[in-house]
# Entry
Amino acid sequence: MTITEDARALLATGPVCDSCLGRPFAERSFGLTNAERGRALRTTIALADDDPYDADEPTDCWVCDGYAGSVDALAATIVDALEGIDFDTYQVGTRVPPLVEENDRLLREDAGFEPDVGESFKREVNREVGRRVGARTGAEVSFDRPDVLAVIDLEAFDPLEIDGSVTSHAVDVQVNPAFVYGRYRKLERDIPQTEWPCRECGGSGIQLGDGGEEPCEHCGGSGYMYETSVEQVVRPHVVDAMDGEEGTFHGAGREDVDARMLEAGRPFVLEVKRPRSRSPDVEALEAEINEAADGAVEVEGLRLATYEMVERVKEHDASKRYRADVAFEEPVEASAFEAAIAELDGATLEQYTPQRVDHRRAALTRTRTVYEIDGDLLEPTRAEVRLHGEGGLYVKELISGDDGRTEPSLAGLLETGAAVTALDVTGVEGEDEPFEREEFFRA
# Structure
């Protein structure tokens, strides 16, 4: 059959609007919208039959039930819903009434077409509404994590009653998170990376006493085990700069609460939920965070990032460099200290889950490598140790032995008790450093 004969078969099923008439031919002609295809076919048939041109309006169409005529109103509603939201990319999705999907299938079946020929009604609505949204906002369509996603629910309105706009409850606008990458230095001890709610009161700051509710004794009523954290220093400023609803801190690993994070710092990404602005002045934001932190924490290199950067930061299996102050229970000879350090240099350790973390870590024996280690015996009972170790290496247990849970250890080799009295992380690095690759950052 020719295209004209096929079009006649479709028109014979009942009143069909131009969009529904043209949609089954989407794969057989290019450069036109479905409505333009349908109009051209209807005109060709009218000329061939020497009949007056008589189009079926969408409101009379038995296939789409009038919804094909609502794309302009849908686009206008989406644009209104996006007012005040900063975005560069978008996507449109549609929930189509089951009856319309069935009619779309029956149209092809009644005309003798294959059921999946041409284009689906859902895809047409997505494209036509999306094209209009893009034209009015200047944004670009993205099918891979767009800044905003507008989901249309066609059943939420009556296409026969619209007057240029669709009620807002027919459109659900989802604003995807925005991301800011940077590195932080933690210059004071006893500051955790993320919020640390009190275990006793569950973060409420309240406990039950004889007189009813009273401030939690364990946290002093603050709800937190520590006064602040790197997350609490950084998050409010970034969320406020992006006019978001909340934020989540993602770090490339973490250091102990009592350890400082020095030198180039540790990479992190701050994820901002439902931001209304995606283009903050990152230099001003960096200065604002550092001024508010008052020397306890510093951030640098803030940049707008993508979702992929979150995954890279979280999955980055970084090796780390440390500097540790070590105290010995008994005096140590310089020669014995040097021999123990030499034996640990390049050694592979077996570390059973440390006692200090066994309440929150699986009971396993982990194999970790000490890439490099050196040190200075400052006094018979005091030393400084510097090392570069594999990611996941428990440094405090490398020194103390953790009652035999780590083998070999400095304490075990020296046959005396040893403990880390101060620990600094001086480097976070890896063989496949992802943190400066352009594909992870927004221009």
About this structure: The first strand starts at residue 89 and ends at 95. The chain has a mean pLDDT of 91.
